[in-house]
Structures are given as C-alpha cells and as structure tokens.
Write a structure and sequence with these properties.
binds thymidine-5'-phosphate; single chain; alpha/beta; about 15% strand; five-stranded parallel beta sheet
C-alpha cells in the first residue's frame, strides 16, 4: 500500500508547525500510521545542515550555497525518511518541502526558477506531495508573531521586503497548482484552521 504525502508551507509565523502537530495527533487517533517530519532536517545529516543554514553566524552565505544546502538536506530526507515511510503505507507530514525552496530561494532571493526546478528534478526524482496546505498571512504580522515565540534565525532576520516577496511567491505557486495546494487563511483561530485541514485531508483519503 502506498502512503500519503502531505506538506505544510507558509511564511514565518503562519502557524503551520502547530497545525502539523494537530493533524498528526488527529490521524494517529484515527488509527493511521503517521510520521511528522520537517525541512531542513528530518535526518541526522539534515539536522547538521539545518544548523548551518539557520545559524545567524552564517550571514555571509551566498544564495547558491543556500539553495544547494536546502536541497542536500532534502535529498537525504527523501532517501532516508520520506520514501521508506510512503512505501510502508504511512501518512508522511512534512513541515516544509520543495515549495519553500521555490518561494524563498526563487521569489525571495531571486534565483532563476528554471535552475531551481532542474535541481528539484534531480533531488526528488519526481516525489511530490499529494496535498500541500499553504498558510497565508501578512508578512509583518507573521514576523511579529514569530518574534514573540522563538529566537530569530538567519532567514527571519531578513527584512520585511524579503518576506513579502516570499509570500507573493507562494501565492503564485498556488495559482499554478490549485489542485494540489490548498490555501488557508492563517489569521483565523487554531481550532477553525484545524477543522479545515482535517476536512481537506479526509476528503483526499476517502
Ligand atoms: P522553519 O522550519 O523553522 O520555518 O525554518 C526553516 C527556515 O528555512 C525558514 O525561514 C524557511 C527556510 N527555508 C528555505 O529558505 N528554503 C527551503 O527550501 C526550506 C525547506 C526552508
């Protein structure tokens, strides 16, 4: 039996991390086998790459280094975690996947999208989420929310203009793939959003 692959996406402070945990708990209670994972990270090697990417000490990282490191983490994640779990029939929920690279490195940093898609082809070998939940929120509100919750990492320290470009990048991506990507208004309450996500996912499963 093939599993189901779900990714959660959005700019900083949109609430996707808490919602991915709530969905995971819901599906476990319903008896599904579920793995909740994240990018960058998800593996021992991926976590080391995550540290490199997010450390504020690495301010001098070039956009291409950044692009390649996110993809290096992803290659490891797909091989070690995502594919084996899907083959065993798990629901795999990942907090970020390829759309983050398109939005942040493509629209945010301005790297040519055709380069990003070529690397994606090599790295994913065609693995794509069945469903993507995209949390949309105003960039300034998202950043403010996040700053109250955790210490800022290297990308969060980018100016608001960067985060606005990332947000509009995500909205472009939805317009290209409305079947796969479901847009959620992240300014709504936690419970309301959770029920919407449950109904999107259960509609897909049933
Ligand atoms: P987060 O998982 O805590 O949101 O942190 C990951 C950061 O890395 C976040 O700022 C988004 C960024 N990111 C990219 O720029 N490109 C990517 O491909 C991924 C997966 C994340």
């Amino acid at each position: 039996m093939k599993g189901i692959f779900i990714s959660f996406e959005g700019i900083e402070g949109a609430g996707k991390t808490i919602q991915s945990k709530l969905l995971c708990e819901y599906l476990l209670k319903k008896g599904y086998k579920v793995i909740l994972t994240e990018e960058p990270g998800g593996t021992r090697i991926g976590l080391k790459i995550r540290e490199l990417l997010l450390s504020v000490e690495n301010k001098g990282m070039t956009p291409v280094t950044e692009l390649l490191l996110y993809n290096a983490s992803r290659a490891q994640h797909i091989k070690e975690v995502i594919l084996p779990a899907l083959k065993r029939g798990f629901v795999v929920i990942t907090d970020r996947f390829v759309d983050s690279t398109v939005a942040y490195q493509g629209y945010g940093r301005g790297i040519d999208l055709s380069l990003i898609y070529s690397i994606e082809k090599v790295v994913t070998g065609g693995v794509k989420p069945d469903i993507t939940i995209l949390f949309d929120i105003d960039a300034e509100i998202g950043l403010k929310r996040n700053r109250g919750i955790k210490k800022s990492d290297r990308l969060e320290l980018e100016d608001v203009g960067f985060h606005k470009r990332v947000r509009s990048g995500y909205l472009e991506i939805v317009s290209k793939e409305p079947e796969r990507i479901k847009l959620i208004d992240a300014s709504e309450g936690i419970e309301e959003i959770h029920s919407k996500i449950v109904s999107i996912v259960m509609d897909f499963i049933n």
